[in-house]
Amino acid sequence: MGVKIYTNVMLDLETMGNGPDAAIVAIGAIAFDLEAGELGPGYYNRVDLESAVQDGGVIDASTVTWWLQQGDEARQEIARAGGLPIAVALASFAEWMGQTTIEAEVWGNGASFDNVILRSAYQRGGQPAPWAWWNDRCYRTVKAQRRHVPFERIGTHHNALSDATSQALHLIKMLRPSAFISGEPR
Ligand SMILES: [Mg+2]
């Protein structure tokens, strides 16, 4: 039996900034089949903030202040030790993309956020980004055009994998309502 290969990925970063060079503290993603309304494998790794900053990642005071106001579970997750050096995290995400997807459309929450920040990190680190720029897709744009479709949260708010999963389900619900079952992946 072959392993299923996906052509859509929802990406969610947790960062310490909101510009294109924001320092990344977690990378979450989930592969999905938009036509079938199915979720596939997920990816999650935390990134060592110091390594992200050494690699040119930028910390913004406004984002740090915002983090201080978020829930305990999400804050503790990004504050605890043991994140991967950014170069290792980027290589590991690229490996996951290579194993899980082909010519994937990569969805981020905002035309200037997740995809741009992650691609910038690959550029600064001298590693090839594991998806093509013409496959950048914006979940936030779809959401703005389908305001009547309710969003259902799975897991912990601001955990990158939980956020990516919730957003992928919402996107399926918006674009393929007939394929959507509810809540958990089929
Ligand atoms: Mg998030």
From TrEMBL:
GO molecular function: nucleic acid binding
Pfam families recorded: Rv2179c-like
Gene3D superfamilies: Ribonuclease H-like superfamily/Ribonuclease H (3.30.420.10)
Protein name stated in the entry: Exodeoxyribonuclease VIII
